[in-house]
Amino acid sequence: MIPAVEPGAHDSHSNPGGSDISNPSLDIGPPGCAVLVVGCGNLLRGDDGVGPVLVRHLWERGVPAGARLVDGGTAGMDVAFQMRGAERVVIIDASATGATPGTIYRVPGEELADLPPLQGLHTHSFRWDHAIAFAHWALADACPSDITVFLIEAGGVELGADLSEPVLAAMEQVIDVLERDFLGPLRPPGGDDISVQFTDDGYLRLDASLAASRFPSDAVAAMVRGDDLWLFPLRGPRSGGLLLKQRNPAGDRSLLIREVLADRLVTGVHRAFWDDAQQALRIPLESAR
Q1: 255 Cβ partners below 8 Å, 6+ apart?
Q2: Where is this region: Disordered (predicted)?
Q3: Which H or E run contains 173?
């Protein structure tokens, strides 16, 4: 029989080497975050999958530090535990109220306080109200209080169908709100004094702050107009264009720009400007410094 050891007491039998090694307590819960975005719904049933599809679009655009994305269509009841430690939670799901497809509802926070009890809960029909009610039950006082729900009225929910045009348009509107009110504030500011570097081997270097704030998806379109090089952010690699590659652990990025510049020989550090009207980075090619 193994003798009992009082908590904190030295146990010479536990370590023949003689040194006392303590086991720190482990916290296996999800890490906290500033914003948690959860997309609920069935990805295989047309407009019912708008939540998970929206999460995938956000992922392609780039996830800022402090944000987490969760596909609630496959995570099931794990969504509730993902909420632990989140300062703000946003849930997106489809609705079926009989309204015009693409209608957007933003559920006020005070209406989330008294949800119906968990009834008929199943991992294959896990909806936004289930997620919140289960989180209240499972997390108790640790359940986030700042929860926002966006519902998009579905049209067709046939098996294997794509999102309908009205629901796609509504999804883009919700994405714009999420970027403006939730994700945008987490992105580092671009700053007014911007500079980039052209290397001798045909690469363009962007520092981590500029890349994260202006090109969060790491995909860009590049073109020369007159004496300026323009970089346009794309939504993700599926949009084509060029990829910003990770250059170092600090997050600086590099872009192979040699073919875009064609016969122009451009090297050194250049000033750059963010053009709000074009939503692009403009780099005068004659402004080396």
Answers
A1: 203, 204, 205, 206, 220, 222, 231, 242, 243, 244, 245
A2: 1-25
A3: helix 165-178
For residues 134 and 118, give the distance between their C-alpha atoms in angstroms, rounded to a whole number: 7
pLDDT in tens, 94-139: 999 999 999 999 987 666 656 555 555 555 555 677 777 777 777 8
Name the β-bridge partners of 198. 204, 268
The end-to-end CA distance of the chain, in Å, is 77
Domain boundaries, the chain: 33-186, 194-284
Measured CA to CA, the distance from residue 205 to residue 269 in angstroms comes to: 9
- In one-letter notation, the amino acid at residue 251 is G
CA neighbor of 54 nearest in space, from 159, 143, 182, 208: 182
Q: Which two tokens stand for residue 9?
A: 């007491």
Please give the CATH superfamily to which domain 33-186 belongs.
HybD-like (3.40.50.1450)
Which stretch of DSSP H or E encloses residue 209? helix 208-214
Q: What is the pTM of this model?
A: 0.72
The answer to whether 94 and 84 have CB atoms below 8 angstroms apart is no
